[in-house]
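INTERNAL AUDIT FORM
Audit reference: QA-55
Scope: verify that the stored structure record matches its stored sequence.
Auditor: D.O.
Record contents follow.
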Amino acid sequence: MRQNKYLRYLGVPALFGTKRTKEILSVNPTLATSRKEAEAVSIYVYNYNADHLFQDELQNTEACLDFREKGGITWINIDGLRKNDVEKVGAHFGVHALITEDILSINQRPKMDEVEGRMFCLLNMLYYNEKTSTVETEQISIVLGENFVLSFQEDAHRDVFDPLRHKLGIAKSAVRQRGADYLLYSMLDMIVDNYYLVMEKLGEKIEMAEEDVIRNSNSRSLAGINQLKKELIVLKRNIAPVRELLNGFIRSESDLIEERTTKYFKDVYDHIVQAFDLTENYRDMMMGMQDLYLNNVNLRMNEVMKVMAVVTCLMAPATVIGGIFGMNFDRIPYIHNKYGFLIAVSAMLIVPVWMLGVFRRRGWF
């Protein structure tokens, strides 16, 4: 406690990001969820088939309930979660109460379930914040039913689905020609592809941190290593379970997943496995970088100790000679010689020079 009392004045806790550690580790799924109601909710509806596309932004959840019976494929995307809205939409589209509870939950592990004719998956979209150099997460829940897909996002201002919206506007695109299961595949594919963008940002930070460690190896470079390791924890925590999620769709025997669509889920599975392997590589690099930092610090300390040892050895002859001629005896060689002082000083200089030559020939420095 006394150390922390003084460290806070030096800014050390802020340097090593202890607040970020608390954010990463403060996850307890056994506690009752207390999700804050969204201030703004945006509802986007896309109803399409190979020949036509209808898209609109709705003002309330009641307006989207009629799309269940309109025919074609319907995608309802709700940005911003409110308990009443989610329960109303879920009840109308036959979503089980357990799924609704998972949609409204927070800090959930990515997973996939199949309940009463509805397939449900929950995972996180990842974003890299350039200002804080942190990985941010946004939970997204997707429900697949017969000819419809419901998606629920926490943030009403950002997502990764703009390329999908662009494809929906193209009449001959694959997503317009296929069913709701292909739409679900497209959404998962874009979420996983965005993971690579975040990992590229982290890769650049790791490269910069490695150069900093090689050049400086000070407390700030150690703080950078520590921060990157925390962000890798967030990355791995969100990527690793997605493999099981995609395996669930691949192995599912539900009629909602066409057999010809399974190969597309396998392709996304290959991507997420590769992403997970890349996070493991990043982790190994960070461990190696930490070892490099410690080795550099030890090497620098050894260099300092070597210089101090050499200086001490060079001063030893002068100390010995001065000590001998400084003794209080009457009979000491050259004590009454007029050149005694010059002889002693010369010996104090010549012996260290000779020692330097010996040390260099032996390669000690």
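Auditor finding: record pair retrieved intact. The first helix runs from residue 2 to 10.
Action required: none
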